[in-house]
Amino acid sequence: MPIAIAVTSADLVLTATDQHTPGAHVLSPPEGQDFAGALAEMGRLLDRQGYCVAVYPASTPPAHVRRMHAVRAMLESDRIALLPSGLPPLGTAVLVRQLRQLSVCDFSPGVLGAAVRLLAHYIYAGALLPSANRLDRLPVELPRTRSKPGSGPCAVLAAPNRQLVRAGGEVTPAGPQFATSLTYAAGQAASDWVTGRLARQWQVQALHPVPLPAESAAWWGTGKLVEFAAAVPEVSLLYQMVGSMRQEACHWCGLALIGDRCAFCSCPVVPPEQRRQQAALKPADRRALAPGSGN
């Protein structure tokens, strides 16, 4: 079943690491397109692809997020999943690349959309910063430390766990315990520590340099950084990871899904006992418990 992957910025569409990975559709921002144009754009995308999984950073301007939800509401479509990502900019771009890889596999739209949360948990995203002076500006809570690393370089891991270490010593942030490739983007800083010590300690299998996303400087509070994200590179491993999860049928929209929530209608998975109780209810009572009923 054709599934389109959509994003809110061209920076989130990294160069594919293989010839089979498709691209992604970049949704126009409100300042670049009127509402009628946005409706037509999404309508054409659904006509071509059938379903759309749209991933956007949690820091996306509210006007753009409201526009996407308004388009979905006006089209009255249950074929659009709007999924925010709390990862840093480069981590979100790596997540989108994994979705693009999986979009050509035989997963249903509901499973692919629900896989966003699963895949994000296995992306190690952070940055090498010149100092810890602006850490309080980051849109992510970091653990309190007895003493800051001072004015020297520091490495910050924002996901899946949060950690702060000196970049001049032997210690690196706790890395993945599985095979990964390391995608990195250098701003106004040298990338030697990331491509050298960090890559060795994390035992990455390949390095992929990419341009620094435009949003990274604002996200991290400085343009003097090297952003990095380690993730599973092989589509076969990603396929096994997602395919091994137990699938459920969404009791509201009927799509297959993994995890505890449908990516398309946002309805949570109902435990078996609750399903049996709801099945015994009268139709009017079931409608009162449906999403958006206000109860």
Explain this structure to me?
- There is one protein chain.
- The chain has 2 domains: 3-121 and 239-288, 3-Layer(aba) Sandwich (Rossmann fold), CATH 3.40.50; 124-231, Hypothetical Protein Tm841, Chain: A,domain 3, CATH 3.30.1180.
- It is α/β, with parallel strands linked by helices.
- It is built from 9 helices and 12 strands.
- The chain has helices spanning 35-49, 62-75, 89-102, 109-120, 192-202, 216-220, 235-243, 272-279, 283-288, and strands spanning 3-7, 25-26, 51-57, 80-85, 124-129, 154-159, 163-166, 181-186, 207-209, 226-231, 247-249, 256-258.
Brief description of this entry?
The protein is of the alpha/beta class. It is built from 9 helices and 12 strands.
Give the tags:
295 residues; alpha/beta; Rossmann fold; Hypothetical Protein Tm841, Chain: A,domain 3; 2 domains; 6-stranded mixed sheet; 4-stranded parallel sheet; 9 helices; 12 strands
N-to-C order of helices and strands = EEHEHEHHEEEEHEHEHEEHH
Please state roughly what percent of the residues sit in beta strands, choosing from under 5%, 5-15%, 15-25%, 25-35%, 35-45% or over 45%: 15-25%
Over the alpha carbons, how many angstroms does the gyration radius reach? Answer: 21 Å
Quick one: biggest sheet?
Answer: 6 strands, mixed
The pLDDT mean sits at: 90
Helices, by number, come to 9
Helix content: 25-40%
CATH class of the largest domain: Alpha Beta
Please report the total strand number as a whole number. Answer: 12
CATH topology of the largest domain: Rossmann fold
Poorly predicted ranges (pLDDT <50, ≥5 residues)?
A: none
Q: Which overall shape is indicated by the principal axes computed on the Cα atoms? A: globular
Which class best fits the helix and strand makeup? alpha/beta
Major sheet strand order: 7-6-5-10-8-9
> Cα distance, first to last residue?
35 Å
Please give the CATH architecture of the largest domain: 3-Layer(aba) Sandwich
Q: Please tell me the total number of domains.
A: 2
